[in-house]
Description:
This protein is of the alpha+beta class. It has helices at 2-34, 106-109; strands at residues 49-58, 65-70, 74-75, 80-83, 89-94, 97-100, 112-123, 128-140.
Amino acid sequence: MHARTRTRTDRRRVPMALLAVLAAALLAAAVLAACGGDRPAAPVGEPSITGMVASAAPADGSNVVSSFRIDQGSGDYDKASVTVTDDTGWYRRSGDGFASIDRPTATALMGKIVEVQFTGAVAESYPVQATAGWVIVGDDLTR
Length: 143
């Protein structure tokens, strides 16, 4: 009878231990997802503006782009002053999909056709001022 009690107790402990391990694994996955994880393989949603980069500024102490301006765009806006951050996703069309790319230099972005989706607040000045959630870089017009 004593062995029977121990078996019932062991049966209860195993599922509780298993639940604890599963809960810890789910918590770890949630923390990794919240901390940024990998960017999506492709941009999601429609662009806020599409147009040629008329000017681009490098980040302080670096040559990667920190902001750019579109003067003759289409979409929700015709002009935009766009800020980019470390969270901005950068893409290039590749076949039927997209390829993730590194943030370009300000010089390399000049004259390129870009599609941009804004994230966060949009300052309704003219031109609008916004932060890019993602940017799809296309060809330039000077080829």
